[in-house]
Amino acid sequence: MKNLLTALTLGCLALMAGTGTLQSRELPKSALQNYVPWKEDTVHTFENLLVQHEGRVKPLYTVARFTLMQFLGRSAVSFETKDGEQHKLHYAAWFLDVLFRGEIAKDMPVFIVDDSAAVVQIGVSPKAKRDRYSYNELLAGRAKLAELGAQYAEKQDQYEKSEKDPQYELDRIEGMILTLGRNVSSFEYLLGQFGFARKGELLVNGNILPPELTELAKRLDTVEMIDKMPEMTLDQLVQTIRQQPGETEEERMFSGALRLFFFHANSARGLNFFPPQDPEKEEWTSAGDLMLAGLESKEMRPWVKTQLAGVQGLVNAKNEGEEAFHAALRSYSDAQHATAEARGEGTHSELEIHLYRGKWFSNSLVFFILAFVVMAFSWLTPASKTGKRLLFAAGVLAFIGLALNIYGITLRCLIRERPPITNLYDTVIFITGTAVLLGLILEYYTRLGVGTLVAVVSGVLGMFLSIKYEAKEATDTMGQLVAVLDTNFWLATHVTIINIGYAAALVAALIGLVYLTGRFAALFHKRENPDFYKLLTRMNYGIICFCLFFSLVGTVLGGIWANYSWGRFWGWDPKENGALMICLWTLVVLHGRFAGWIREIGIHTNSLILAIITTFSWWGVNNLGVGLHSYGFTEGVWGALYFSWGILAIFLAMGVVLWLKERGERTTRRSGAPSGKEVPA
Q1: For 114-192, where are the E strands, in sequence order?
Q2: Burial 25-47 (b: 16+ CB within 10 A, else e)
Q3: With helix as H, strand as E and coil as C, how does 282-334 read?
Q4: What pLDDT score does 4 carry?
Q5: Of 359, 522, 371, which is closest to residue 439 (Cα–Cα)?
Q6: For position 672, what pLDDT does the model report?
Q7: Are 551 and 500 in contact, with CB atoms under 8 Å apart?
Q8: What is residue 307's predicted lDDT score, i.e. its pLDDT?
Q9: Residue 50 pairs with which residues in a beta bridge?
Q10: pLDDT tens digits, 426-475
């Protein structure tokens, strides 16, 4: 039903409105000028409402958060009123305005445009090169935006179907217009969610309905209309709408009522607020789906009317003042939670709000950055008591950052009732935590400062990547699992163990970077401590052994899981090949060291190659678009990988220089000629 409704939407809207439907209208420019913020209690009650989104029942708080991030790229919208007062609305308060004070929300600058050329193409006067626009500011170009958006969407589909033929690839501005068009369309659906409950208050696209239907909307109660309409399917409804209205007043009224009903049903799609009447069913429904279900079956109409009347009561209470609205909102929320909990759903909604409101991962990044700053000061007086105290303080700050990271991961596990890793975002925060823990363990046993450095750098880079990834994807990071991942046992064994191996490989690379940087710098100041570098080599050797153990065990467990899931232990899938390459390369390093083929420099340079293989297996193979593990595509990841590999290549070149120098010195010593300062072999 949803797919059919979507397919018919554009045609039927055009049919309803005739020509000139998407024209802008003159709107008051003062909607924000007298803005009155919601009370905190009202916002908290609202954000606890439940909705099923992306296959999971979650608080509306989460939907609001990622919706605003998708539109604006941040979690708050800022604006100034005429009295000079600055307002900064976080996602829940903004979402509350969108659903219940739409005319105000339409003036809020929530659409980020990175290049003003995009708005110029749709006929809108640009502001700064990169700026934020409100819905009303973009309304003048809405028709052109819809036209270009459909054109570029078709071009993108051709690009995917043609296996990424460059002639169909969108350029930068076209991609911006496509994204902007989708965001504006999503915003319009949010504005229309409760349109059926507002008599005559049509928020979307100005005069999208012809005047006679706009007047009719002021007189008709959409919820009460359900009882008075004959039973009909969606197909029959569309066929009736397409017919010319009769000549009598009654026939025209009936035709107009059907068109209005269809408009409201279509506008109220997207947010599934309502648990199904049948407790055996899993899928919640939106107000639009309820309206169509009530139209199709008279037996369902009493239940449908009860559900819609609940929302209608909220809209009416909002018009009576915030106190009445808050009371109605509380009553509605309590009833919804009781129904959901009886179904075993939404039980962790408050915990989820606590997760996002606490900003545990952002705060973790703050502590890691502080740890890095404190550690940098310790380098000014490394051998003094002050330097040692600063180094210890950096370790404590890193430990606090790790504790916040672990707490956030634990909350996510409790909310989903799953092990810690279910998607790419989970791997980032988990691998970061594991790398920090390994670094702190190394520091505990060595007291060199290197372990703290590894922990701090891992924490800063990893937590920054997690925040950047979440903002870029702008989607729920606790979404529905891919079918093959829907098993707690293998998530807790294979996936967790293999990611511990990834973390160890990256820690080995960081130690290698420290070694190569120190040895290369010694070429210029002629001072180095052989014992220090030998200890670094032993540390790296142990970490590589650790990496081999977890990578090998994780790969074998993955094969067993593949046998259960796909009926074969091994299929040379790119992800499987990546895991195998990690195991093989660690074996190469360890056997080479055991046989004497590689020495200190060889251990550390090969750890960098291990990092390249690991990052390819972690991120790269997901973007190849082939294989059974191609379920974590991330746009733009290849550029980031090439950049990181380029940096590692520079250090590899430094390793080659050191190896050539060391080889020359060994040759000199064998020939009996005077040699330079003794260096570790």
Answers
A1: 131-133
A2: eeeeeebbeebeebeeebbebbb
A3: CCCECHHHHHHHHHHCHHHHHHHHHHHHHHHHHHHHHCCCHHHHHHHHHHHHH
A4: 34
A5: 371
A6: 65
A7: no
A8: 93
A9: 59
A10: 999 999 999 999 999 999 999 999 999 999 999 999 999 999 999 888 88
- 511: number of Cβ within 10 Å: 27
Instruction: Provide the b/e sequence for 562-593 (b: ≥16 CB within 10 Å).
Output: beeeeeeeeeebbbbbbbbbbbebbeebbeeb
Structure tokens at 467: 């925040």
* Two structure tokens written together for 381: 């007086």
Sorted by where each begins, the domain ranges of the chain are 1-21+193-319, 359-468, 481-672+677-681
**The model scores a pTM over 0.70:** yes
In this structure, the chain runs to a length of 681
Using the 8-state DSSP alphabet, how is residue 199 labeled? T
**In this structure, are residues 269 and 286 in contact, taking their beta carbons and an 8 Å threshold?**
yes
Mean pLDDT rounded to a whole number for the chain: 86
Q: Return all residues near 376 (Cβ < 8 A) that are at least 6 apart.
A: none
Look at phi and psi of residue 76 and say left if phi exceeds 0, alpha if psi is from -120 to 50, else beta.
beta
Kindly state the DSSP code that residue 132 receives in the 8-state scheme: E
Take residue 529 and report the two structure tokens written for it. Answer: 């401590």
What's the pLDDT tens digit per position in 375-400?
A: 999 999 888 899 999 999 999 999 99
Which token pair is 635? Answer: 């746009």
Q: Print burial letters for 619-638: b (CB count within 10 Å at least 16), e (below 16).
A: bbbbbeeebebeebeeeebe
Q: If DSSP codes are grouped into helix, strand and coil, which group holds residue 274? A: strand
pLDDT digit string (tens) for 485-543?
667 788 788 899 999 999 999 999 999 999 999 999 888 876 778 889 999 999 999 99
| 285 strand-pairing partners | 274
3-state secondary structure of 89: strand
Both tokens assigned to 650: 């520079």
Distance CA 364, CA 257 (A): 56
Q: Provide CB contacts within 8 A for 10, sequence distance 6+.
A: none
- Under the banding of pLDDT at 50, 70 and 90, the label for residue 666 is confident
Residue 311 pLDDT more than 60? yes
Alpha helices in 319-384 (DSSP H): 322-342, 349-358, 360-378
Determine how many CB atoms are found less than 10 A away from the CB of residue 69.
18
Return the DSSP state at 272: B
Give the whole-number percent of the chain exceeding pLDDT 70. Answer: 89
- Hey, what amino acid is at 264? H
Phi, psi of 50 (to 5 degrees): -100, 145
pLDDT higher than 50, residue 37: yes
Report the distance separating Cα 224 and Cα 78, nearest Å. Answer: 39
221 vs 263: CA distance, rounded Å: 14
Q: Are 24 and 34 in contact (CB under 8 A)?
A: no
DSSP string, 19-87: TTTT------TTTTTT--PPPHHHHHHHHT-EEEETTEEEEHHHHHHHHHHHHHSSSEEEEE-TTS-EE
| 3-state helix, strand and coil shares in percent for the chain, rounded to the nearest 5 | 70, 5, 25
Say if CB 43 and CB 96 are below 8 A apart: yes
Cβ neighbourhood burial of 276 (10 Å; 0-12, 13-18, 19+): middle
Q: Per-residue b/e over 355-387, b at no fewer than 16 CB within 10 Å?
A: bbeeebbebbbebbbbbbebbeebeeeeeeeeb
Report whether pLDDT(208) > 70.
no
Look up residue 412 and give its two tokens. Answer: 């996510």
Q: Of all helices (H) and strands (E), which one includes residue 88?
A: strand 86-90
Please give the pLDDT value at position 657: 93
**Hey, what are 448's tokens?**
């060199």
397, two tokens: 């700050």
Please, how many CA atoms are within 13 Å of residue 306, restricted to the half-sphere of its CB? 11
